[in-house]
Amino acid sequence: QVQVVETGGGLAQAGGSLRLSCTATGLPSEKYSMAWFRQVPGKEREGIACMDWRGSERYYADSLKGRFSISRDNANPTLALQMNLLEPEDTAMYYCAVGYPSRSLDSRDYSHWGQGTQVTVSS
After folding, report:
1. Quick one: how far is CA 67 from the chain centroid?
2. Which of 38, 42, 65, 86 could lock onto 121 through a cystine, CB 3.0 to 4.6 A?
3. Using CA atoms, how far apart are residues 80 and 65, in angstroms rounded to an integer?
4. Contact (Cβ atoms closer than 8 angstroms) between residue 30 and residue 54
5. SS3 call for 67
6. C-alpha span between 27 and 104 (Å, rounded)
7. Four-point Cα dihedral 23, 24, 29, 35, nearest 10
8. Which residues, in sequence order, are CB contacts of 52 under 8 Å at separation 6+?
9. Pair 112, 24: CB distance under 8 Å
10. What is the spatial distance between Cα 29 and Cα 31, in angstroms, rounded to a whole number?
11. Residue 75 or residue 2, greater confidence
């Protein structure tokens, strides 16, 4: 059974940083992609960044490139999301997803999701 677990959310001040981590277990294949999304109540889930199974291709939403970065450790496998220069608008529930797409930030392409971790940025 596939399990996806996010950790590392919490409260941060504007201008600060947070690092989220996602661990996936029970995956049937090594050739998967992992991605981060976020969602604010009443709005659609927004793709942040994704990485392929090799860890060689990273794809970011244009609006977040430069402040957010992802890295991956295939030994476990984990996907980290480093968030810098946080803004109050970054307040959201952050989700990790696992699937088998290529360079996709479309939530419909991901079949396994974590429960989410809340990030709150105060001004």
Report:
1. 13
2. 86
3. 15
4. no
5. coil
6. 19
7. -70
8. 33, 102, 103
9. yes
10. 5
11. 2
